[in-house]
Design a protein that fits this description.
CATH topology: Double-stranded beta-helix
Largest sheet: 8 strands, mixed
Number of domains: 1
Shape: globular
Radius of gyration: 20 Å
Structural class: alpha+beta
Number of strands: 14
CATH architecture: 4-Layer Sandwich
Helix content: 25-40%
CATH class: Alpha Beta
Number of helices: 9
CATH superfamily: Clavaminate synthase-like
């Protein structure tokens, strides 16, 4: 894992920059701010810019980088929300969200999904009552299976970002790079063939839409069409390859929980090879306990992530992360966005 700890001077410089921005914008989802973020990001301390740029261009084998040491005011951010739908008009974590977007802008452009968290770009990752045993980021008592983010979709992001505001439970994020040394050349070749399927995770399905979207879906053709697309992929996912890119150092597209592995029984060769890959990734999983003030970025092409089960108390001081998705090529999703400047995929 690539790591860097902010020094006092860098923190002061970042705070000064953020204070200036927060006078101009009350939300990081403001279209003008998103447009300017990649320019403003070059005012960040040079050591941080170099660190993130190296992670982007050099593609380290770990697939994970961690920026630590930013001070979080527990009082200022207030209580952890009980549900992601309970969004404040002006986020109490606006300062931290601005930093998060600026760091991300050095990797690419942030994007969101119409079918996830009411089409917002910055997501709240929090335990939600009633979701304890779901295969969702809002679960707690259930193991969140490791995966590539949105592996089912051709417009999935290049990077996943997670910012920790609070984690008194010490819940562990699991991460692992993809190591092909366990595989024979012929097995790698099999994983490059379109013999596998991945369904959408449940956060994209109608049953998890926001209360506002439930009334909006009937009148909003774009939103309705978006959920129909997800339903179609869920019902009949197309055949895809698990590996792509360079056979010597492949990129990966995998989400075992949603791959209907039992249906591969008719393709014994593909089944055995996929299971071997899954076992090799399992053996490489490590725990990452994010601390307040940590900014973690995962290369969604080179590493997987998940989360260990954990116990929580819904007391307003429970786990609270912010999450974003970043693409290096905004244009590839143009057919699924309402305009060239929109960041939301339908």
């Amino acid at each position: 894992m690539e790591k860097i700890i902010l020094c006092d001077r860098e923190i002061d410089e970042i705070k000064s920059l953020v204070n200036e921005i927060s006078f101009q914008y009350s939300s990081v989802e403001d279209d003008k701010f998103l447009k300017e973020a990649s320019i403003i990001a070059h005012e960040l301390p040079k050591r941080i810019r170099t660190f993130i740029n190296d992670f982007r261009l050099l593609e380290p084998s770990s697939g994970v980088c961690l920026i630590s040491g930013y001070p979080i005011s527990d009082t200022k951010i207030g209580k952890t929300p009980s549900h992601w739908q309970h969004r404040q008009k002006i986020s109490s974590a606006l300062e931290e969200e601005i930093i998060f977007i600026l760091f991300s802008a050095l990797l690419g452009d942030v994007i969101g999904w119409a079918t996830q968290q009411a089409g917002h770009i910055v997501h709240d990752v929090i335990p939600i009552k009633g979701h304890e045993y779901e295969q969702l980021g809002s679960s707690s008592k259930e193991l969140l299976w490791w995966h590539n983010e949105d592996a089912f979709h051709p417009f999935r992001g290049d990077y996943l970002g997670m910012m920790c505001l609070r984690n008194q439970e010490k819940a562990a994020t699991t991460v692992a790079p993809v190591d092909t040394s366990y595989l024979k050349p012929e097995e790698i070749a099999i994983l490059f063939e379109p013999r596998f399927t991945i369904r959408p995770d449940e956060s994209h399905l109608v049953k998890n839409q926001s209360d506002g979207q439930k009334t909006q879906t009937n009148s909003d053709n774009l939103l309705s069409s978006s959920y129909q697309k997800m339903s179609a992929i869920d019902s009949e996912p197309e055949k895809i390859s698990v590996f792509y890119g360079d056979p010597k150092c492949p990129y990966v597209r995998i989400d075992p929980y949603f791959m209907d592995i039992d249906k591969l029984k008719k393709d014994d060769e593909a089944l055995k090879t996929l299971n071997k890959l899954i076992q090799s990734i399992e053996s490489n999983l490590t725990n990452l306990v994010l601390q307040p003030g940590d900014f973690c970025f995962i290369d969604n092409y080179k590493a997987v992530h998940g989360r260990k089960p954990y116990a929580t108390v819904y007391d307003g001081q429970h786990r609270w992360l912010k999450r974003i998705i970043i693409t290096r090529d905004l244009r590839k999703s143009r057919s699924a966005r309402s305009s060239c400047t929109s960041r939301i995929i339908y």
